[in-house]
Amino acid sequence: MQMPKPRITDVAQVAGVSTATVSRALTQPDRLSEKTRQRVFDAIRTTGYRVNRAARNLRTQRAGAVLVLVPNLGNPFFSLILSSINDVFAANGYSVLVFDSQQPSAPDQVVSDYLFNGSADGVITLDGHMSATMGETLKNADLLRNVVFCCEWSDKLLLPSIRSDNPLGARLAVDHLVALGHRKIAHVTGPSDNILARVRRSVFEDRCAHHGLSIAPDWIIPGDFTLSCGARAAERLIALADRPTAVFCASDEIALSLISRAQQAGLRVPEDLSVVGFDDIEIAGHVSPALTTIRQDRALLGRMAAEELLGRLQSDPSPHAVPISFAPVELITRSTTAPPPGR
Amino acid sequence: MQMPKPRITDVAQVAGVSTATVSRALTQPDRLSEKTRQRVFDAIRTTGYRVNRAARNLRTQRAGAVLVLVPNLGNPFFSLILSSINDVFAANGYSVLVFDSQQPSAPDQVVSDYLFNGSADGVITLDGHMSATMGETLKNADLLRNVVFCCEWSDKLLLPSIRSDNPLGARLAVDHLVALGHRKIAHVTGPSDNILARVRRSVFEDRCAHHGLSIAPDWIIPGDFTLSCGARAAERLIALADRPTAVFCASDEIALSLISRAQQAGLRVPEDLSVVGFDDIEIAGHVSPALTTIRQDRALLGRMAAEELLGRLQSDPSPHAVPISFAPVELITRSTTAPPPGR
DNA sequence: GTTTGAAATGTAATCGATTACACAGTGCGG
DNA sequence: CCGCACTGTGTAATCGATTACATTTCAAAC
Lengths: 343, 343
Prior knowledge:
2 copies of one chain form a homodimer. Chain A has helices at residues 8-15, 19-27, 34-47, 53-60, 76-91, 107-116, 132-140, 166-180, 195-210, 227-239, 252-264, 298-314; strands at residues 65-70, 95-100, 122-125, 147-150, 161-164, 185-188, 220-221, 246-249, 274-279, 292-296, 324-327, 329-332. By secondary structure, chain A is α/β, with parallel strands linked by helices. Chain A has 3 domains: 8-51, 434 Repressor (Amino-terminal Domain), CATH 1.10.260; 64-164 and 298-327, Rossmann fold (3-Layer(aba) Sandwich); 166-297, Rossmann fold, CATH 3.40.50. A 6-stranded parallel beta sheet of chain A has the order 2-1-3-4-5-11, sandwiched between helices. In chain A, strands 7-6-8-9-10-12 form a 6-stranded mixed beta sheet, sandwiched between helices. In chain A, helix 1 crosses helix 2, helix 8 (166-180) runs parallel beside helix 9 (195-210) and helix 10 (227-239) crosses helix 11. In chain A, 51% of the residues are buried. The structure holds a DNA duplex.
């Protein structure tokens, strides 16, 4: 009852041609005469033939797949990026492999595994943790040009990188609060080993200094981008004797849960406390009060990264340029920011 | 400067054994003597050898990868499931391919592509849309046993399915509202072609009937699980002459944006309007008021589905059982539900 | 010291495509 | 009518592993 899968020779037989011709019909149809091309396609249809991917990959030494390394797949910030990466590659005949880099195995390990054993032709990593030694290893195998960073990146390893203009984002946030009249601004950071968290924090500090604002040590609250750290930050903020009138949060999730906890403690947002987030995740506009935040164009980030990698996979010559592209960010003013109390 | 990738023959040469022995060292190490096994592993280390996946796949007729079909990758509800699926397969040496089934190509098409051309050994689909004819096609190739549904499922196609106990969830929601004293309950549905939406709606109706509540046609508001439809639903609700005192929403995202819009219109939640969601996405507990909802254990769903598929891929005999497993759901009572006004 | 069976290893066929190279057919200019 | 360039197609080598089958090694039993 169960037919064996048709192979290329079966198609060739049915069409009355050689396997080479069938193969050419599939990969370079214009090299065949109209007549045989039709015959082959008919035969493919009647046999129900599908190219065996493993055989093709072995012969052509390509995988037809790319790996996306995602730190925390459960985070909605990443999943939209993944989605647009998927769109680009699907449209170009590539499969997309995902790997959650929070897994025990280090990102380094995963990237080299997939690249070296030929499971993937290239890698987009949303995780900036990659060591310089891994870079060396990849370079020696001439695989370095098949890796691009998206969103995060590493200072230790120069690779093409698509990222939001984080400095601008942080500046917009601070300037917005200052323009409203705030002089005491707090900051909830991301994880200290995260490049985005470091950039946002350092620009926050610089920009405060630029405006002549001093920052009490208590006002910089270490966090990790998550909801739960936002709630904790709110508690610390509330307990402060000299309480800031505004907070710049390193992520929307921090901001949202911080607001929620602050409200539960009787603080009004934005009347008593202004809050600015970062990312503009979808829900930010659908809570009340709606979150003022810095928009990152996640779909664009994913698309740009995918197209950069695609270009590298398809262009044979090895252009040794290492482009860094900045996706625009934008201040989205909603309802969680207002002038400080008593103005 | 650039060494060619070492192949199995290179390892064999270095170790002074045949390729068969090297291969066995990799796949069935206990069939080798301690001494040669060590020699082979040493040689692997010194050469930096990695198994070529395409070659292995071609020879063994397996892909070592599974496909996860996700309707809307950007939706955080799915991405956490994806994450736990990824964990299970990563731990068992499988790669995970993802595909967003919102892509132009129909789910059917994608599944058959990946399975037939040997890109994937199995499929977990979070998308319940699959035709009976596709089922036939797969059955004919004996590939049907390598597909499992997770979360969603199809009535037209009997396949192993891991799902939350949706009827219980809807019942818990309605009963909770009724217990608080509500007699006029609205429902915002998911897309009408979605199996989950249909089940939740029909249980909602049944359960209201069971409690002797009548439902005005206006009180069933068609939605699509998204944030924006929640806002629209709020507007319709507010405009109603005979307004319900409670709403059961088919998803948390609907509930959250509905609440937000209702609050903007001056309605108090839960005093004027009680709201119950469905899913218990992470943010549900981190907004104010915190959302009362039906918890689905997404990590468990993903894990169960992954383990079911894994079992099927690893067990040769074809057990023709088609298990349907229900993951438990739970009412999480938070702060968006209260007795109706005037009680 | 054989015999014998199990354990360890080797030889070579095989998976299913792609593609270098060879060859046949066709049309054109001289 | 021949040679030449070009187009279209076929033959067979090849990608890099796995594994059926053959062969060697070895220890225990006689």
